[in-house]
UniProtKB/TrEMBL annotation:
The keyword Transcription regulation does not apply. It comes from Parapedobacter koreensis. TPR repeats lie at residues 138-171, 175-208. InterPro entries: TPR-like_helical_dom_sf, TPR_rpt. Gene3D superfamilies: Tetratricopeptide repeat domain (1.25.40.10). The chain crosses the membrane at residues 28-46. This is Tetratricopeptide repeat-containing protein.
Length: 225
């Protein structure tokens, strides 16, 4: 079994052992898996509404960085540029207050998170402004929760996950964020709230992917009450 397969097993199939959350959290990917992939897929189509001339220039330059972002070995070029095209960092600074800069900051946050640079991720994500997207906005808030989770600041992580789950409720992001919220509550030994978060997935989003395996998480948390 490859390491990637092991990560996926950790993230989707809870064990009934008492220390299962510790095992999940050691790998870190329980929080960030899926987030960066979803961001990339969203942004490829999302940048198409830039209309102002200055924003249009930034959007044109954003394409190359986006292409690099989809390739693991080239993600540093996505951040820093390649000498001919700017990376997300330069776009965010050079075209501040444009929609492209806003998207660049979201990309930066996701990529820094992937690299384990959690404070840099927070700095970038905090510069992101809501766009009105029912999927993108809660996902970026959730990435802030991911960063704080990795820093073991579970109070802040829970706050961001809760805010993200309640913002623009939908079957795509809300159950994913509620699951992360439950895991953070488990990390704090607050198993009552963990159960409540998991059961919301079961009751409010029964058709979601997360709902298919949530009974195991509920049973684990209830056993610790």
């Amino acid at each position: 079994m490859s390491s990637n397969q092991k990560h996926k097993t950790v993230a989707t199939a809870p064990t009934k052992r008492t220390g299962s959350f510790i095992l999940e959290n050691q790998k870190s990917l329980v929080f960030i898996i899926g987030g960066i992939v979803v961001l990339i897929l969203l942004y490829i189509g999302y940048q198409r509404f830039y209309l102002a001339p200055r924003a249009e220039t930034a959007a044109d330059q954003l394409f190359k960085a986006e292409a690099y972002a989809t390739i693991d070995s080239l993600q540093q070029r996505a951040i820093d540029g390649d000498g001919s095209y700017p990376g997300f960092k330069e776009i965010a600074d050079e075209y501040e207050n444009t929609k492209s800069a806003n998207i660049a900051n979201a990309y930066l946050g996701g990529l820094y998170l992937r690299q384990g640079k959690y404070q840099e991720a927070i700095n970038a994500l905090e510069k992101y402004s809501n766009t009105g997207s029912t999927v993108l906005d809660p996902l970026v808030i959730g990435l802030l929760g991911d960063a704080y989770s990795e820093l073991k600041d579970y109070n802040k992580a829970a706050s961001y996950y809760k805010k993200a789950a309640e913002k623009n409720s939908n079957t795509f992001t809300s159950p994913l964020l509620l699951k992360k919220l439950g895991l953070v509550y488990e990390a704090q030994n607050d198993f009552k709230q963990a159960v409540e978060a998991y059961k919301r997935i079961q009751s409010d989003y029964p058709e979601s992917q997360e709902a298919t395996s949530i009974e195991g998480y509920i049973a684990r948390a209830e056993a610790r009450l």
